[in-house]
Amino acid sequence: MEEANIVVIGAGVVGLAVAAKLSESNSGVYILEKNARFGLETSTHNSCVIHSGIHYPPNSLKAKLCVRGNFLMYELCEKHRIPYKKLGKLTVATNDDEINELERLMRWGEANGVEGLRVLDRWDIKRLEPNVEAERAIYSPSTGIVDPDELMNLFHAKATRNGAVLVTKTEVTNIRKMDYGYEVSGVSLGEKFTIKADTIVNCAGLNADKIAGMVGLDVEKLGYRLHYCKGDYFRLLGKPPIKMLVYPAPEKLGLGIHLTPDLSGTVRLGPNAYYVNSISYEVTSSENEFRENVRRFLPCIDEYGLTPDFAGVRPKLQGPGEGFKDFIIRHEADRGLFGFINLIGIESPGLTAAPAIGEFVSEIYENEIKK
Q1: Are 248 and 256 in contact (CB under 8 A)?
Q2: Could you give the CA distance from residue 232 to residue 221 in angstroms, rounded to a whole number?
Q3: First and final CA of the chain: distance in angstroms?
Q4: How far apart are CA 25 and CA 21, in angstroms?
Q5: Which of 45, 51, 55, 258 is catalytic?
Q6: What's CA 65's distance to the chain center, in Å?
Q7: What mean pLDDT comes out for the span 120-144?
Q8: Which pLDDT tens digit goes with each residue over 136-158?
Q9: 167: helix, coil or strand?
């Protein structure tokens, strides 16, 4: 039976960031990933945006870790030559109700410490983005885009250099609490395996609630149950009509269908948001839905062709009809699970927050667990 100091379950961008940080000062770190390589799920099926932090309530983990992650992300990109573009973003309002939403976002952004925010009128908007039609906008200069694959390559390289071991094609099926810590078992490369661990960090993304349930936590009672929320993307054909990111005022389920230039210079529309019962990455939404949503602030959309691009699935704690739900990042010692750290509901802004989440989990480990 293998023995580990720390087992990180899940090798998405968050799991890799956590492993990279923990392995800086701890040996015996293992990362278990059920897929053939790291980052094949939520980490690469998203908008690839470095968020500023205006969309999250003050004092929430999403707000704190997004703002810190934004700073760390640009620092990492510069230092390690990770492809990125700091493009800036317009969040636009086309009517009075949406203007009220922007006023709320502005209050949140200022309370969260987001720097450089400005409110723009329609003429200011036209000077920045001539094709955008809106009454008001928030300009956030610190928003950008990043290559998530290269970011994960960096975290993986850091973790490996520190002595951490990534084991792919390894699915955890059971976890037992033992006197010495935990016994993790499952299937690796078609063979059963068992590994002893002093500490477990649950970074399993879309399956994080299932991992939490394996140690006896009542995911329904605790509010840990995840809801799969799918989002489709379309790619715009032709010369890009925008230079920066353009978002509508936010909707209940997400940030709304937005326009994001990618690192190659083309523009992507999406995602929309709808709940599903199973994970699928096939684009099933209609082109017309995307045109109708975007037309109100980008009328020239009808001059462009659209083609289905890809889809993603978000692990939401927020179920149908429910309000804001924060990240769950928690040491479960008070529930009889000393050394078990849960990360559940790590959706947007999880990519931006990843390096800050690594710091946060490391602080929990150093202050509450490490002997």
Answers
A1: yes
A2: 31
A3: 23
A4: 8
A5: 51
A6: 11
A7: 98
A8: 999 999 999 999 999 999 999 99
A9: strand
Residue 215, amino acid: V
Q: Please report the pLDDT score of residue 304 as a whole number.
A: 97
d(CA 133, CA 91): 12
The tokens describing 151, both together, are 């970011």
Angle, CA of 85, 59 and 84, to the nearest 5°: 10
User: Whose structure tokens read 């995911």?
Assistant: 219
Question: How many Cβ atoms are within 10 Å of 79's Cβ, its own excluded?
Answer: 9
**pLDDT tens track for 314-341:** 999 999 999 999 999 999 999 999 999 9
Give how far the C-alpha of residue 224 lies from the chain's centroid of Cα atoms, to the nearest Å: 17
Q: Kindly tell me the burial class for residue 35, based on how many C-beta atoms sit within 10 Å of its own C-beta (0-12, 13-18, 19 or more).
A: middle
51 is catalytic: yes
* CB 329, CB 61: distance < 8 Å: yes
Q: Is 188 helix (H, G, I), strand (E, B) or coil?
A: strand
Distances (CA, A) of 23 to 17, 48, 218, 361, 362: 10, 26, 30, 12, 9
Domains with residue ranges and CATH for the chain:
2-44+149-225+323-369 (3.50.50.60), 49-146+227-316 (3.30.9.10)
pLDDT in tens, 270-320: 999 999 999 999 999 999 999 999 999 999 999 999 999 999 999 999 999
What is the Cα–Cα distance from 128 to 120, expressed in whole angstroms? Answer: 10
The SS3 of residue 321 is coil
Burial class for 187, CB neighbours closer than 10 Å (0-12, 13-18, 19+): middle
Measure Cα distances from 113 to 50, 65, 362 in Å: 16, 12, 23
* CB 189 within 8 Å of CB 170: yes
pLDDT for 6-53, tens place per residue? 999 999 999 999 999 999 999 999 999 999 999 999 999 999 999 999
Q: How many CB atoms lie within 10 A of CB 141?
A: 16
**What amino acid occupies position 344?**
I
Residue with tokens 């951490």: 164
pTM of the model: 0.97
